[in-house]
Amino acid sequence: MKQVDIKQLSTSDLRERIKEEKSVLAKLKLNHAVSPIENPAKITYSRKTVARLQTEFRSRELAEAKK
Asked: Which of 22, 10, 28 is nearest to 51 (CA)?
């Protein structure tokens, strides 16, 4: 997910996407632990997506608190 797309999401949508991406990441990690997945780069991509979403969410929280 690109940064431009993330910035367009509402705060509630952002929260939902974080939950979804975290569950996807957990499933990928579990599947990879049981048997190696075909493309382990998916784990890295998913982890970075979660980080991007959390960064945007946190920056919105800080902007809200600053007001």
From this structure: 22
Please, what are the domains in the chain? 3-66 (1.10.287)
CA 51, CA 21: separation in Å to the nearest integer?
A: 10
Residue of 6, 2, 47 lying closest to 24 (CA atoms): 47
CB 21 within 8 A of CB 49: yes
For residue 48 the two structure tokens come to 């970075």
Residues 14-30 pLDDT 10s: 999 999 999 999 999 99
Helix/strand/coil (H/E/C) assignment for every residue in the chain: CCHHHHHHCCHHHHHHHHHHHHHHHHHHHHHHHHCCCCCCHHHHHHHHHHHHHHHHHHHHHHHHHHC
- pTM, two decimals, is 0.90
